Amino acid sequence: MTKTKRVLTLFLRFLAIGATLAAVIVMVTSHDSSQVLNLTFTAKYSNEQAFKFFVIAEAIACGYSLILLLTFSQTSLWRLVLILDVVIAMLLSSSVSAAVAIAHVGKKGNTHAGWLPICGQVPKFCNHVTGALVAGFSAAIIYFLLIFSSLYSVQNTLFL
Amino acid sequence: MTKTKRVLTLFLRFLAIGATLAAVIVMVTSHDSSQVLNLTFTAKYSNEQAFKFFVIAEAIACGYSLILLLTFSQTSLWRLVLILDVVIAMLLSSSVSAAVAIAHVGKKGNTHAGWLPICGQVPKFCNHVTGALVAGFSAAIIYFLLIFSSLYSVQNTLFL
């Protein structure tokens, strides 16, 4: 692996840690409540399984990249790292999609199923969730770039 | 690539085509209706964005593997195929997760958001969707095995 490649990989790993950490923090701190017909309606991420899955997946990805940075010198493990990168990329893309699907129902509702949108009542919560989803989506893209970069450097040849 | 490896890859590609095709067919044919307070309530996959995304993603994966089988002899393209396999695996895992998130709300509802479960009214629809999700999840696993197998055969060495 050349020095430029190594620096690029390090940079992408730091970006991945930043994005996943931001996603976790922004999602966990999402909280809003409103009064509906004398009842207090509280919205928080832990009320929905998909958002909990999102937080767990982002935290795993963040921890994985942190551990990898500490053991970065062992380039002989590239194949195992590549496999784990694929697993994490699939985990991140699935967690973001699940959270987006629920957030979409929260924003637009689903008239066919009788599910009403809730973002009108708790806009602060919805904005936080949107921010977390953007960070999570960025993390999935960064992991894909890491895989692309690793595969590209397996042999120093261009795509045939 | 040895002959055994080639046969295994071919077998996995056929399995992937079968699983994705099954997922598309079972999801598209999911349909049920019931009478609620003199109103006919019809449930079909096209009423929900996540289920439409699921069908499109599974169809893309199915078409991709079909095209690949026709151009299978060109093993020099392995790097491009591996990158595309990763893209398809991420696409499949995200589409399955989005559909699972919505199906979970359909089955259990979400009392915090006031979303009621609908599976009690349209059990046939829910069973079809569950079948499609199992097929879709299997397809994502098969793609992961394809990536694992490809990476394993990049060089004929074990994990270091």
Automatic annotation (TrEMBL), chains A, B:
GO terms for cellular component: plasma membrane. Keywords: Cell membrane, Membrane, Transmembrane, Transmembrane helix. Residues 4-141 form the Casparian strip membrane protein domain. The chain crosses the membrane at residues 7-30, 50-70, 82-105, 132-154. PANTHER family: CASP-LIKE PROTEIN 1U1. Homodimer and heterodimers. This is CASP-like protein. It comes from Sphenostylis stenocarpa.
